[in-house]
Amino acid sequence: MPITDFLTRNARMYPEDVALVEVNPEIRERRGKTWREYDLVETNPTHRYRRELNWKVFNDRANRFAHLLLDAGVKRDTKVAILMMNCLEWLPVYMGVLKSGAIAVPLNYRYTAEEIKYCLDLADVEVLVFGPEFIGRIEEIADQIPRVRNLYFVGEDCPTFADSYNIRVGHFTAEEPAIDITDDDLAAIYFSSGTTGFPKAILHKHRSLMRAAITEQKHHGQTHQDNFLCIPPLYHVGAKMHWMGGLTVGAKAVILRGVRPDWILRTASEEQCTIVWLLVPWAQDILDAIEDGTVDLDDYKLDQWRLMHIGAQPVPPSLIKRWHKYFPHHQYDTNYGLSEGIGPGSVHLGVENIDHVGAIGKAGYGWQTEVRKGDGTLVEPGSGEVGELCLKGDGIMECYYKNPEATAEVLRDGWLYTGDMAEIDKDGFIWLVDRKKDVIVMGGENLYPVQIEDFIHTNPAVKDVAVIGLPDARLGEIPCAIVEFKPDMEQTEDEMRAFCSKMPRYKRPRKYIFADVPRNATGKIEKPLLRERYGAERLVKQEVSE
């Protein structure tokens, strides 16, 4: 059964019930009016503070877009990329791609033009749907992506090099497309990356999407009365797969464009959200705002909020202790996952196991887990030994698209080798202890050191550079550049920051250390030594300051 069947069913069973809401607090604050006052006079719907769709309209829009794609010559397994900020159109476009039999290819909205081109080429994309924030980046590469034969722009004032989604989609029928889709059909490509630079394309079947939806609903017990506040980007498997748990029961979801603590609390209050998925930085920001008086919980109606869960990075137990001080009635949960395993839920803590906060949990619903040592033998619970976390289940990727060598490295005998090192306590709970790769996870977003190092190496004063992750109380990790200068060519930290300002903001190092970069006999940077040297030093400083 494809995930799109749930959308069709919801449109039949709950046609007038609200399915999706988009809230954009920046518009309200910029206009200086309440959303109700502003929406009464605003004629352009994309400029409104709050927009919504019921299940029937949601399904109709997905069907219309599927027919638009089919009319444009899209065939089964044609790749259709989506490059949009979170908005009301995102999920109808995604579901429309799936209903057409094509393969959805969500793109990270932080990608540079060069990275967008790379991903479009790697995934053999033929159709691109993009929003107004990306006009400049797409225009920059428009004549370099000949395989992409159709570009659809979602928004007002369509650029001349694209077709208007807003205008075109209304010309097509809302009837269900006559496309037979099974669990074994290909569904989506998501992007990930190791430390070697540009992302790998992760290919999933429809079976993976269904596994994610069912697992999420089993873990968190969504009902038709629930309301999920979706804040993380929809291009990522995390936010979308958590939303799919609600899709299975026709539950409402609110897409919030912004992460300010008062925006999150206000939206949860006004929209009466019952489930909120946060990243560690956002949860900490909310707690800090409460404690410094920036927000007053008495200003919000939050009694209905039943579950706060966190994913994408390790969760400090002290954070959850602080959270329950202000939200004692909240259930708490955490989920471990990765794009190769269709996102969150392959390992699951469970709301009943708050005494094990810090662990990632046990095998999720429908999943199997093992922790294997280098010789292939299993780590025994309570042994204190460390091994590589391995997963097995219907959510495992089909392959790294067009990369059989990388696929063979991580898929063996039906098991996915995650690259995450873990141990198992005597109660069977899995605890992550390190990563085999050097990926830096900052606020739930992966940063890839080699890309940053390659850029810094273009500085004529730099002899060598290594980028590592340092522990950070708010973001989990921050990128730190250890820079070794050429003789008599030193630069100040301000000069280095100015040089790195040419990189996307999220990739820029947050800290610089000017020192020698150690390499071993084979020429490899000794990053474990650097992490031990500078990471331990930073932790000591944090403990002293606290």
How would you sum up this structure, described in words?
The protein is α/β, with parallel strands linked by helices and 546 residues long. The protein folds into two domains: 4-309, Rossmann fold (3-Layer(aba) Sandwich); 440-545, GMP Synthetase, Chain A, domain 3. It is 32% helix and 26% strand. The protein contains 17 helices and 27 strands. Helix 4 packs across helix 5, helix 6 packs across helix 7 (135-141) and helix 12 (280-291) crosses helix 13. Mean pLDDT is 90; it is low at 539-546.
Descriptive key words:
about 550 residues, disordered C terminus, alpha/beta, about 25% strand, nine-stranded mixed beta sheet
Helix vs. strand class: alpha/beta
Task: Enumerate the strands of the largest sheet in spatial order, edge to edge or round the barrel.
Answer: 2-1-11-10-12-13-14-15-16
Principal-axes geometry comes out as globular
**Which CATH class of the largest domain?**
Alpha Beta
By DSSP (H or I, 4+ residues per run), the number of helices equals 17
Under the CATH scheme, which architecture of the largest domain would be assigned? Answer: 3-Layer(aba) Sandwich
The unreliable regions are 539-546
Mean pLDDT: 90
Beta-strand percentage? 25-35%
> What's the domain count?
2
Short structural summary:
This protein is of the alpha/beta class and 546 residues long. It is 32% helix and 26% strand. It has two domains: 4-309, ANL, N-terminal domain (Rossmann fold, 3-Layer(aba) Sandwich), CATH 3.40.50; 440-545, 2-Layer Sandwich (GMP Synthetase, Chain A, domain 3).
